[in-house]
Design brief:
- This protein is 56% helix and 0% strand.
- The radius of gyration is 14 Å and the shape is elongated.
- The longest helix has 18 residues.
Length: 50
């Protein structure tokens, strides 16, 4: 298996904004009651292939 490394000290403003958005979505997902429509919507935002 090939190791992938990401140098986070050289992120573009766009990459930083995307990382922040993803962190907020995951936080909200982790604090949402399972089985609700909001939970399902967040799951599809975070994991589009599911």
């Amino acid at each position: 298996m090939e190791e992938i490394r990401i140098d986070v000290s050289k992120q573009t403003p766009e990459e930083l904004a995307l990382a922040n958005e993803h962190a907020q979505l995951i936080f909200k997902f982790n604090h949402t009651m399972p089985g609700t429509s909001e939970y399902t919507e967040l799951m599809h935002c975070i994991f589009p292939s599911i």
